[in-house]
Every structure is written in C-alpha cells, then in structure tokens.
Amino acid sequence: TRVVAAALNPADSKRALGVLKDTDSPLPSVPGCDVAGVVVKVGSEVSKFKVGDEVYAASLPLAIITAYQGFEKVEFSAGKSILVLGGTGGVESLVIQLRNSFDGSLKENSIAVMETHCSSKAQFVLEYDCIQVAFVKTLWRL
C-alpha cells in the first residue's frame, strides 16, 4: 500500500513522549495508526483487494471495540445506568451511540454524562436522547 494521507493519533504522541514505555513495542518502529492509501500490489491468494483500491486504517474501530468491551466488562443489562465522564471524546461518544443502538430493555437504560472540559461542547453532549439532563446539571453545580 502507498500511503496518501496520515494523521497523528493520540497514541502516536503518547508513544513519542514515552508515556507508553511499559506496554510499547521495542524501537525502532514506524508511528502511525491512522492512514489512507492505495493498494499497489496484491499477493496471488488475495481476492478481496485489487491494485488501485483505496484503503484506510483508522483508530475508530479500536475506539468502538473499547466502548463495546466496556459494556461487556460491566455486564451491562436491563436496569443498569452508566456515568460517562466527558462524552465528546472518541470512546465516550461511542459508548453513548452504542447504547442508542441497543434494542428492547437495554435501550431504556439511562446514561448520565458529565462534560468536564468545555462548556461549548455541552450542547453536543446534551443532544443525545438518552441522557439524564437533571443529573448532569446537578453534577455541574457541584
């Protein structure tokens, strides 16, 4: 694959700063979790891609997997509620969106979100249809 565009992912900057040293792969390594490019060569047994196909690798799948694993870890079930701190980051917003995609009794579960970073993002967070707004406003007053 020939890389056409790349983004700096938070994991890349943490790696460069040495924050991930305990779990990081040994150096030298090539940074970059989020890239887009074009297939320039395929093996003889490859049938899903062909030369010229536009492809990408991004962190969104990792964020949504992390959010989903959170639901599994806490054994999210009918009657349970979730508090999301933030709500506008990748994993936090996906937790809320995943909950909105559930069927039946799980969709009735509530999520309380406390936006801690910036008041301009609060409206974005409050637009989700599953949030206990009164609870959030109470937390803001505290």
TrEMBL record:
* GO MF terms, alphabetically ordered: oxidoreductase activity, acting on the CH-CH group of donors, NAD or NADP as acceptor
Q: Known InterPro entries for this protein? A: ADH-like_N (IPR013154), AOR-like (IPR044626), GroES-like_sf (IPR011032), NAD(P)-bd_dom_sf (IPR036291)
Which keywords fit this entry according to its UniProt record? Oxidoreductase
Carries keyword Oxidoreductase? yes
> Can you give the residue ranges of the Alcohol dehydrogenase-like N-terminal domain?
2-92
A Pfam family per the record:
ADH_N
Tell me where on the tree of life, at the top rank, the source sits: Eukaryota
Name the family the entry cites.
Answer: Belongs to the zinc-containing alcohol dehydrogenase family. Quinone oxidoreductase subfamily.
Report what the protein is called: 2-methylene-furan-3-one reductase
Q: What species does this protein belong to?
A: Glycine soja
